[in-house]
TrEMBL record, chain A:
It comes from Actinocorallia aurantiaca. This is ABC transporter permease. The keyword Ubl conjugation does not apply. The chain crosses the membrane at residues 21-42, 62-85, 116-144, 164-188, 195-218, 238-262. Pfam families: ABC2_membrane_2.
Amino acid sequence: MSGPLPLKVEAVRQFRRRRTMVAFGFLLLLPWILVIAFQLGGGGPDEDGRMSLADVATTSGLNFALFTLFVSTGFLLVVTVALFCGDTVASEAGWSSLRYLLAAPVPRARLLRQKLAVALGYATAAVLALPLMALLAGTLVFGWSDITLPTGGTYPAESAFGRMAIIVGYSLVSQLVVAALAFLLSVVTDSPLGAVGGAVGLVIISNILDAVTALGDWRDLLPTRFTYAWLDALQPDISWNGMIQGASLSVTYAVVLFALAFRHFRGKDVTS
Amino acid sequence: MRGRWVAGAAAVGVLAAGGGFVLLSDDEPPVRREAVRVEVVDGPKDDQKVALDATFYKPVGVEKAPAVMLAHGFGGSKESQAGAAVKLARQGYAVLTWSARGFGRSEGEIALNSPDYEVKDTRQLIDWLAERPEVRLDGTGDPRVGMAGPSYGGAISLLTAAYDGRVDAIVPSITWHDLSQSLMPQGVFKKLWAGLFFTGESDGSTACGRFLPAVCEMYQEVARTGRPTDEARDLLRESSPAIAPPVRAPMLLIQGQSDSLFPLDQADHNARAAKGPVSVVWYQGGHDGGEQETERLAGLTSDWFDHYLNNEKGITLPPAFTVTRAGGVDSRNGRQSVVAATADAYPGLENATRELPLEGGQQAVQNPAGGVPASISALPGLGALSSLGSLGGAFSLDMSGQNASFTTEPLDTALRVTGSPALRVKTDREATLFAKLYDVSPDGRAALARRLAAPVKIDGEGDVVLPALDYEFSRGHRLRVVLSTTDYGFSSPAEPLTYEISAVSGLSVPSAPSLSAPAPRPPVWVWIAPAVALAVAAGLLVPRRRRRQDDFDEASAEVPLRIEGLTKTYRNGYKAVDDVSFRVEKGQVLGLLGPNGAGKTTTLRMLMGLIHPDGGEIRIFGHRVGPGAPVLARLGSFVEGPGFLPHLSGRDNLELYWRATGRPAGDSRMEEALEVAALTDEALARPVRTYSQGMRQRLAIAQAMLGLPDLLVLDEPTNGLDPPQIRQMREVLVRYAEAGRTVIVSSHLLSEVEQTCDRVVVMARGRKVADGPVAEIVGGRGLEDVFLEIIGSRA
């Protein structure tokens, strides 16, 4: 006999939700929308002369996947991760099913642990689904060749998978802080919208503060400071510094936020 | 014209301030300085008296300190070095800055760092330093002294150290080894730079300005004809370390990678001529502009002096060879970073490791009449357009028909070139050519690897040495050597000519594989912060309460429910349950009766472990109830309405709920429970969100009955049921209790309780107000009357 609320049960409970379907559907559709956009827009470099991933997006499937990830990291993936982690407990409270789970009885810490594991699992799948579909779409439409770096060089396709793995892996870790905040809010509030919106709102505020250059080095403490550090993996020699700092910051915030979530839920009066 | 003037102004600015200095904040210790005029005697016959305008900066915090002489760049004055001087004074050095003869408020005329003039001046400045009480002496008249300066000031540092053994360490930057080779490389006149150099000091009254007449006449002659003369070459060589005695003082040579005036090969010659310790630094800037790396260079300079002048311990000496490179883009601000690659040995410029075959064949190339239009490679000041030249994409111009190009195969791996690539070329007649190196990307775009051109004169067969650089060619890219007949920065033959040019060798490519850039270390907090977070998390999650001894009470193991002194006050101060005690025996159907707000639901929530009681305790079969208590498995509950996942069907909801309890599937008694729900198979297969209120109600009661729990708690079970269903429900509950199980029904409906229950607990305003068998409490009257009386009398 397994413990209460096995992961498989929780996964099935969440899977057939419209929310899950729509989120994955959108993430799997987005690369094709971008493909169409690039096809309609034709070629032509940026007017401002700066080189970016957008300029080289159509050079290969790998480049297209990178571009898709680049335009999604700042907001789309944040919303997706916040959705899976912020909704998980709050929606149960909203449906009143939470109290029956607790009285089943599922011990509170175990309930949170299992729900968190499943939510993180779905969030991970979502973060993986996007670049994988983009890679598929990009390769079918733009072909398979070396990565063209926006700084001018190229990177051999054979070893590009390693870099892609680093990039996606870092993206996952850097989203951990969003996941943790959404999860904490999900435990504190009974409103799924509040939990998801709160986490996304914090990311927006962090991004705004990041633009305040007067804050100087204090900005290195902002949770979104190193969101794009994975671009360092696109340089001929990987520069780990930004990614290490970003991962450390994300893990630090996440550990504390998760602990707060468990502590709050442990002593909470469930009245929903 | 205006464009050129602006470019020229920018370049002179660089000449003057190339060494750079840091602005200091005001809260640092004040530096005492003293403006002095030092009388010196110089000239070939030592008969010319000149007063030099100088400033002496006293060392901060030391009685006797080593001295550092900071020389300024061409066009500057002693004030150009004021910032650097203050900084060194605060580091404990006595610092002397001065305006060289012909500059600032010093007297005399510019002799281009001639051994007869400027060198004699600086040697007398060293004499002057030896007299200062603040300056530490190595011997009588021999102060401990170092010299540093950019460009013109770098050359005087080298020349003074060459002619005067008292100089103990020097840091010359962006300067020349052979001034004639710098202004007339390979006998080709570098007209643009030379023009800026010699006309920049004109005060407007005469063309020669403050130059020594002989120097000025030399320049005018060469500029007029575009052909260097032997006299000019000799005069410029006079002012060059190339013909001076070798320098024995430790020498830190800093040269710019964006420098078409004094390219890297000048520092290479200086390094090879030196007899003392030498370190070479190639930084990103130079006379053409670019990233100045002020902080890094100031740090290297003070390290050098700290070690060689101050004998300070624990100083990491700059390694033998440092090359700064465009590093990664900082993802936080999109800015390109600069990283320093270092090696323990300086390999020189011709450390060729491989030869790449060149394609191109014989090409006919035109030299246009008058040398115009000219190709453009470097322009003074133009390097500043792209802050890091090695990024490529730099602006350049080649005139069609005026150049031969030879290209390698695409590279199968990335190739870093460090030094001067070279090839052998054949021409059918004497040709003046300008050699440049291009980076050709796979799509055919070509960009100058560095905006530098090396002039070369070839008659027959000869070597072409390309400008020294440090540059990485990506995999798949090709190297292209372009030999152009013209270059905007140089004089080239005016006669229209056609050359036949061919490459007779491959391109030999030098490298410095020992150069390595240490990976930048992340700050320490990246390791500490997660550890601290884990500690904080552990602190937050310390168990609040140890499991108590009396969690199980043997005596009441057969009592389905016993509540004692139960109290709950909500955070807003509302006392929902106040000292409630009652017990329920096996086989009973207990009615919990009370108006809305009586505390029934709060009591049931505490019973389910959802709410923490403030006082009292609840025991189910002797086990204390708390959140997630295992004994809750013996409780089936339906409180305050159903709770289902709306997207799942009724059957899936029940099945997943049972699986969530973690109990064996065989124990669920699913079919019996579903019988109570009285839902059709079709309804059970639909998502719950399509259900009516009554259907959900029945499904929820069925869920509570899953596994046939020993204690069943139902809150308002008949809400939303129609009369036949209510009747049916009553029968179900009575039958359920008859099997030895226990049922608690909470309701505000008197008739409900009266018809279903055999015992009743009445609650009002959080308190228990009556408890007993229904028949006893009713006593022949209607329960309603009794109920109203009870709660009314306590009101």
